[in-house]
Amino acid sequence: MRHLLTALLLLASALADAREVAFTFDDAPRKASGYFDGPTRAQKLLHELAAHKVGEVAFFANTGQLEGEKLQRLKTYGNAGHIIANHSHTHPNFNGEELQAYIDNVREADRILGDFPTFKKWFRFPYLREGNTQAKRDGMRHFLDEQGYLNAYITLNNYDWYIETLFQQAVAKGIEVDLDKLRRFYLEVMISGIEHYDQMAIQHIGRSPKHVLLMHEMDITAMFVGDLADALRAKGWSIISPEEAYTDDIANYRTPSVLKYNAGRIGEIAFDKGQKTGLWHETLDEDYLRRRFSAEVLR
C-alpha cells in the first residue's frame, strides 16, 4: 500500500510539473517589406514548423488588408493545415472603442474568415485588452458566448514584436545584423519570459497548465521558431496543439476584475489572488530590450 501511495504521489508530481505549450501567431498576415517579403516569410515559417516537428499551430488574422499577397499568404497557412482564427478586422484598441463598434469590427472579420476551411471561432483580443469597463467586458463576453466563440487567451506573454521592430530598423539603416547573435538573443528572451509565467502559474494554481504562447507572424519568428521549439524541448517542454491547450481547466476561468491592461490568463489569475507586481516580466519592457539588443546583437 505504501508503494502504491508513493507511486501515486510521484505521478501527481510529474503531472503537475509536465510542461506543455502551444504555438500561436497574432496579426497574420503581418506587413512584410523588410528582411523577407511575404511569400518568403510564409515559406520559411512553414518549413521551420515542419522541419522541427511542430504540428498544428494557430494564426490569428486581421482582415482589414486581406487582399493580394496577404490573402494568399493566409491561405497558404490554412492550406498547410493550420488553424485560422479571428483577431478582429482592423486590430482596434478596445480601451478606446465603444462596445458596439468593437463588436461590429469582430463581426466583419468573422464574415471574411468564415470562408477559410480551417477557420475556428476563436477570438483573441488585440493587445489582450478585454474591456476597461465592466459593461464593455461583460458585453463582449455575452457576444462571444452568443456567437459560439472561444476567448483564445494566452498564458505566455512577450514582446517579440519589439525585437522584430529593432531588427527591421537595423535592416532599413543598412546595418549588418549577425543572425546567430540575434537568434541567441531571441531565444534567451523568449525562454526567460516563458519560465517566468510558468513559475507564476505553479505559484498560483499549483501546477504547470497547458500553456498558450503568444508570438507574431514576423520575419524573426520565421527564422527562429524551429530553434525555439528545440530549445524548449531540451528544457523538458512538449509542443502541443492549440486545440489541446484550450482543454485546460483555466480555459473556463473568468476574472471578476476589470483590467485596463491584461498580461494574459496567468496574469489575470495571479492578480485576482493578490499579486499586483511582476505581472509583466522584464522582457516586456521596450527600454530593456533596446539596451540588450544594442549590446548583444549589434555589438
Domain count: the total is 1
**How many strand units?**
7
Q: Name the helicity range.
A: 40-55%
Morphology: globular
Beta fraction:
5-15%
Describe the main β-sheet briefly.
7 strands, parallel
Order of helices and strands: HEHEHEHEHEHHEHEHHH
- What is the CATH superfamily classification? Glycoside hydrolase/deacetylase
N-C termini distance: 61 Å
| Rg over C-alpha atoms, rounded to the nearest angstrom | 19 Å
CATH topology: TIM Barrel
How does CATH name the architecture? Alpha-Beta Barrel
The number of helices is: 11
- Structure class: alpha/beta
CATH class: Alpha Beta
Compute the average pLDDT.
Answer: 95
Instruction: List low-confidence stretches.
Output: 3-15
Describe, in plain words, how this protein is organized in 3D:
The N terminus is likely disordered. Strands 1, 2, 3, 4, 5, 6 and 7 form a seven-stranded parallel beta sheet that branches. Helices cover 51% and strands 12% of the residues. The chain is an alpha/beta fold and 299 residues long. The protein is globular and about 50 Å long. Helix 2 packs parallel to helix 3. The chain has a single domain, classed as TIM Barrel. It is built from eleven helices and seven strands. InterPro entries: Glyco_hydro/deAcase_b/a-brl (IPR011330), NODB_dom (IPR002509), Polysacc_deacetylase_ArnD (IPR050248). Keywords: Hydrolase, Metal-binding, Signal. One of its GO terms (molecular function) is metal ion binding. This is Polysaccharide deacetylase.
